[in-house]
UniProtKB/TrEMBL annotation:
Lineage of the organism: Bacteria, Pseudomonadati, Pseudomonadota, Gammaproteobacteria, Oceanospirillales
InterPro entries, A to Z: PCD_sf, Pterin-4-alpha-carb_dehyd, Pterin_deHydtase
Alphabetical list of CDD domains matching this protein: PCD_DCoH_subfamily_a
Keywords linked to the UniProt accession: Lyase
Name of the molecule in the record: Putative pterin-4-alpha-carbinolamine dehydratase
Source organism per UniProt: Marinobacterium nitratireducens
Signal peptide range in chain numbering: none
Length: 119
C-alpha cells in the first residue's frame, strides 16, 4: 500500500477538460485503497471526504492551511470546513461532476503533509 501512496504523492494534478467522464464507483473504490483509512467515498461516488480531529483549535487551523496550500500548489481546490477540534476536507472535480484522479492525488498528498506535521 505505501508504494502506491508514494506513487500518488509524487504525481501532480493535471488540468481537467470538459467531456472527461468521472471515475466510476468501481474505479473510485480501487483508488480508495491507496488512501488513508480516514477517507470516505460518497455513496454516489461524487466525492471523497475526510474529517481530521484534534484536541484544540490550532491544529485544525494548521491542517486547513495545509489543505489550502496544497490546493493552490496543485490547482485543485477542495471544499473545507473547520472549527474547534476538526477540519473536514472534501475533494471532487467540478469539471467532471464527480471524481477524477486529481482528487486522489490531492488526498494522498494531504495525508502525507498531515503526517509530517504530526511529527
Amino acid at each position: 500500500m505505501s508504494e502506491t501512496i508514494c506513487d500518488l504523492t509524487n504525481r501532480s494534478c493535471k488540468p481537467c477538460e470538459g467531456g472527461t467522464p468521472p471515475l466510476t464507483r468501481a474505479q473510485a473504490g480501487e483508488m480508495m485503497q491507496q488512501l488513508d483509512d480516514g477517507w470516505v467515498l460518497a455513496e454516489d461516488a461524487s466525492y471523497i471526504e475526510r474529517e481530521f480531529k484534534f484536541k484544540g483549535f490550532a491544529k485544525a487551523v494548521y491542517t486547513t492551511n495545509l489543505a489550502c496550500f496544497l490546493a493552490d500548489q496543485q490547482g485543485h481546490h477542495p471544499d473545507i470546513r473547520m472549527g474547534w477540534g476538526y477540519c473536514n476536507v472534501r475533494f471532487s472535480t467540478h469539471a467532471v461532476n464527480g471524481l477524477s484522479e486529481n482528487d486522489f492525488i490531492c488526498a494522498a498528498k494531504l495525508d502525507a503533509m498531515v503526517k509530517t506535521q504530526d511529527g
